[in-house]
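Co-fold these.
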Amino acid sequence: MISCGEAVRHLWEFLDRGLSDENQRAVEEHLAWCVRCCGELEFARSLRQLLRTTAEGGVPDDVRNRLSRFIDDLDHID
Amino acid sequence: MVLTASDTAALQQLARDELPGLYALARRLAGRNDAEDVVQEALLRACQAFGSLRDHQAGARWLRVILANVWRDRVRKDLRAPRELPVDDVERFSLYRTLVEEDPFPYSDSLHLDFLSAFTDDDVDTVLDRLPPRYRAPLVLRYVEGFATAQIARMLELPLGTVLSQLHRGRRLFEREMWNYAAECGLLPDQGGARAGEREGGGPRWSA
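Predicted complex below.
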């Protein structure tokens, strides 16, 4: 049995499946009865998703032009 | 290593295809000022190493690893420096509970999701920028780029335990900076946030 504090500390690792079997089970058991920590779990999941969905922003036009020229010139490198 | 004309053409095509992703990763790791330079250096290293890339299907991942290595070599000292943050403060912070306690959206029945929907992509980028590099990098490589923790440890040339610890602290710091940023930049409606609600109707980008 673990406390809410301990469960919350491990939630991201829990979602990553990065905990030891014993700790993974302990968090699972805690989540089975603790509604508040289930809310924390869903929030952690949403935060991870928020990070993932911002994966690619645009490249500013001037930067894209310079980098494109740089790529074009790669065949002149010794 | 001198590349054949067809290898050079293949690398150029790969670089063109992956440019947005490479630039986004460089911007997150190195910041806007240095991102372009990091991409260029990564491409030069890729030229040297292209002959060792056996599976061209894995080229996108391979370029990102090279780029992360370039960045690591630039900030090696900072990655290994002793931490200077007041750890206790960070360890105790929970964004979920802070939102419940502060209740910035008093009429909302989806408080936590409303909070997240106030953030644009640029806002999330800015919050990440605020984190010290040694906490930001593992977070970006793990949760934005999807690298496994053990691979991140190899890329950053750090012990696995150090990366796990930096990830843990980085997540807490990220949550705290989300809250601080929202308060400072007017994303919270009960603080007169001019920008609050701007994303209304945009839909939750993070739904699993």
